[in-house]
Write a structure and sequence with these properties.
The protein is built from one helix and five strands. It is mainly β. It has a five-stranded antiparallel beta sheet with strand order 4-3-2-1-5. 14% of the residues are buried. The longest helix is centred in the last third of the chain and has 7 residues, at 49-55. Helices cover 10% and strands 44% of the residues.
Length: 72
């Protein structure tokens, strides 16, 4: 994630193979950012309604920057 990432940005969150058949990228929007250190933060993402239906998850926190990307 870039340092310019802010609340309201559209992003995609990656659910890895531990989620089985649900592995993949899912759409959402950043609703909160909790700083962890000078260089990393927790990004709270509210998933899109379509993603919520597929995953049965509404909001998730993402710490690993490899698992979140902004829309271009």
């Amino acid at each position: 994630m870039s340092d310019q990432t802010k609340i309201g940005d559209l992003v995609q969150v990656y659910f890895d193979s531990k989620f089985g058949e649900k592995e993949g990228w899912y759409d959402g929007v950043i609703i909160k950012i909790d700083p962890y250190s000078d260089h990393r933060s927790f990004y709270w993402v509210e998933l899109s309604s379509e993603s919520q239906k597929k995953l049965n998850v509404k909001i998730i926190s993402v710490f690993n920057p490899k698992n979140i990307r902004q829309y271009r």
